[in-house]
Amino acid sequence: MRFSQAFIPTQKQIPADAEVPSHQLMLRTGMIRLHLSGVYSFLPLGWRVLRKVAQIIREEMEQIGAQEFLLPTLSRKDIWEKTGRWQQAGDLMFRLKDRRGADLCLPPTHEEIFTSIAAGEIRSYRELPQIWYQIQTKFRDEPRPRSGVLRGRQFLMKDSYSFDTDQEGLERSYQLHRRAYLRIFRRCELETFTVSASSGIMGGSESEEFMISSPAGEDEVVLCRDCDYAANLEVATAGEQQSDSPSPSAQSQAEKVFTPEKKTIEAVSEFLELSPSRLMKSLLFISERGPVMALISGEDQLDEAKLNRELKCEFRPATPEEALELTGAHLGFIGPVGLKKEVMIIADLSLKDQDDLLTGANQDDFHLKGLEPGRDFRVEKYAQLRMVQSGDPCPCCGAALEISPAIEIGHIFKLGTKYSQALEATYLDPQGEQHPIVMGSYGIGLERIVASVIEQHSDKDGIVWPISIAPYQIHLLPINPAHQETKELSEQLYQGLLGKGLEVLIDDRELRAGTKFKDADLIGIPLRATIGEKGLNQGKVEIRFRKSGKVIKVDKAVALAKIEEIVREMEKTVQSSEN
RNA sequence: CGGGGCGUAGCGCAGUCCGGUCAGCGCGCAGCGUUCGGGACGCUGAGGUCGUGGGUUCAAAUCCCACCGCCCCGACCA
Predict the structure, then answer these.
(1) Which of A57-61, A292-296, A330-334 ranks highest by mean pLDDT?
(2) Residue A545 CA, nucleotide B9 C1', distance (Å)
(3) H or E segment and range at residue A474
(4) How much is the ipTM here?
(5) Å between A379 CA and B72 C1'?
(6) Of all nucleotides in the shown strands, which has a C1' nearest the CA of A411?
(7) Which CATH number applies to A31-236+403-454?
(8) Positive or negative CA dihedral for A411, A416, A418, A422?
(9) Predicted local distance difference test score (pLDDT) of residue A578
(10) What is the spatial distance, in angstroms and rounded to an integer, between the CA atom of A215 and the C1' atom of B68?
(11) Can you tell me the mean pLDDT for A430-455?
(12) Quick check: A576 pLDDT over 70?
């Protein structure tokens, strides 16, 4: 490509609306432009990168025997009703009606459609296993799109689905994907790690996320420094620490204290000069199984996912009116002692065997102190309810846990039979018995890979592309295209490299050298060949590595061969590191 | 959805509190000249319904109301 004819609108200034580095750089290099919140146009440079990522994904998917499909981006309602997700997806799903008033949606994922194809076509165990995939636009009306393409409302996803006869087969398909994903990320030169994760609305038994560590990430992962434990904060658990400070007064008695207007843990703790660890948070919820009070230490946060796991049903915070009715007090003064009505009480494990605790007295402006669970109030159940905090002990080895932000770029699920049962995707076994197909589903966010690569591979001057997904492999930079020898040699190199099947961008613009150098660094093509009078006087062409800044001077006669050799070498390095 | 910020030329911004040479600056863009290996310099020039609609006023980028849009924090997140 000739830069003079290319549409690569680079920007010197950092766009005001971008905060994370990958977003800024994608805008500045002219890869993307905003169309509406969370929806971006990909310009030629960005699209080239995206296509390269897609190509790597295709190669690795084909490698595990997956077959590419292309499903619709418009879907009918009935299959979503059968799986319950027409309801469940709520506002996240874009919905529309056709001219006859039929309900349609823009699928946020494609389990329903793939499964309905399987349901219509697969009859026998002989036709299994199958792995089907596509690279397709997904639509999700995210409550808050952010960070450029990292969380968009429309994005490209490689989604694949495995269909097996049994759990063992699923395990095989799952492991195939796991390995394929690791190869894909390695080829993109992404440093990833996996964490166990919540399967959320997807359902199923087990899921893992592929993460890259980044301050731009929206997920929080819990990592153990000493062992392999790694989990999304959503599902992380901590080992239980033994309370090394035994409660001060073993024979404390429940006692009412006057705490006017002190509603929060901080306010009460300050007012009574008590450590928040002595305080107990009483949180009231209304669940499908009735009112529930969750008790946790004053220094912890409730992890709603964990409460959900214990309750096994939907719940929501009680309104102030409901709290008053159930406890006799306003929020801020509620507690487990002397409730007006029947409320299920579930307490965090850390409160077990504690005493001399303080919480609301169910009377406005009063708290109760000296409380002991079991003695002063009944607890239906103890469970880990608190959010894991940095420094908590690892559940596996006891070492301190760390929490750090991360970007989720892939997620693999063992779905089981949730969708096959709902949509009647079954097969006959050798005995002629009918069974639901056992499914897995596997996703990779394409734009997230691109943005993540930039997050991991950029410096103050711009992007530093890995050669595997760089928009071009070589950036030819004739300093002064008007200079005869410069022009001739750079043209010769350009045509020669193209002839070798390489991807070349030649900056033939009549601009000052500095401007062209800055653009070259910004765009970040891994190899740059500079052709200028200074070098030509010695018969040399300069080859510069974007990553290291290292420059080698080669004789102009061998420049073509040398550049090709270096490109092939760089490509091979990535390939060979993958095994 | 709650909280905060913002919307003035392609980009980055000043002007808004206190209504009246406030339609301005830098970059970019076009032309000419000098320059020419890390975002040059000079001169000239083009380019803006001041997000939209309504209101107040002799007069509105500026004050009031409504709406739209973008960003950030939170809630949420397959």
Answers:
(1) A57-61
(2) 39
(3) strand A474-478
(4) 0.95
(5) 42
(6) B78
(7) 3.30.930.10
(8) positive
(9) 47
(10) 32
(11) 97
(12) no
A116-125 confidence digits (pLDDT tens):
999 999 999 9
Q: What does CATH list as the number for A255-383? A: 3.90.960.10
Tokens 């880990």 belong to: A384
Measuring from the CA of residue A535 to each C1' atom, give the nucleotide at the shortest distance: B37
CB-side exposure of A253: number of CA atoms within 13 Å? 1
Tokens found for residue A353: 């065997």
Find and list the nucleotides of strand B having atoms within 7 Å of a protein beta carbon: 1-2, 11-13, 26-28, 35-40, 69-78
Inter-residue contact A113 to A132 (CB < 8 Å): no
CA A471 to CA A462: how far, in whole Å? Answer: 14
Q: How far is the CA of A13 from the C1' of B24 (A)?
A: 20
- Number of CB atoms found within 10 A of residue A553's CB: 14
| CA-to-C1' span, A208 to B30 (A) | 56
- A126-168 pLDDT per residue, tens: 999 999 999 999 999 999 999 999 999 999 999 999 999 999 9
- Which nucleotide is nearest to A551 if distance is taken from CA to C1'? B37
Question: With helix as H, strand as E and coil as C, how does A516-561 read?
Answer: HHHHHHHHCCCEEEEECHHHHCCCEEEEEECCCCCEEEEECCCHHH
Domain ranges of chain A: 31-236+403-454, 255-383, 465-576
The CATH architecture to which A465-576 belongs is: 3-Layer(aba) Sandwich (3.40)
Quickly tell me which residue has 């989990």 as its tokens: A231
Q: Are A540 and A554 in contact (CB under 8 A)?
A: yes
Q: What is the mean pLDDT of chain A?
A: 92
Nucleotide nearest to A538 (CA to C1'): B37
Matching fold, domains A31-236+403-454 and A255-383: no
Length A143 CA → B66 C1' (Å): 24
- At A507-543, the pLDDT tens digits run 999 999 999 999 999 999 999 999 999 999 999 999 9
Tell me the nt nearest to A159, Cα to C1'.
B78
Q: Is the pLDDT of residue A333 over 50?
A: yes
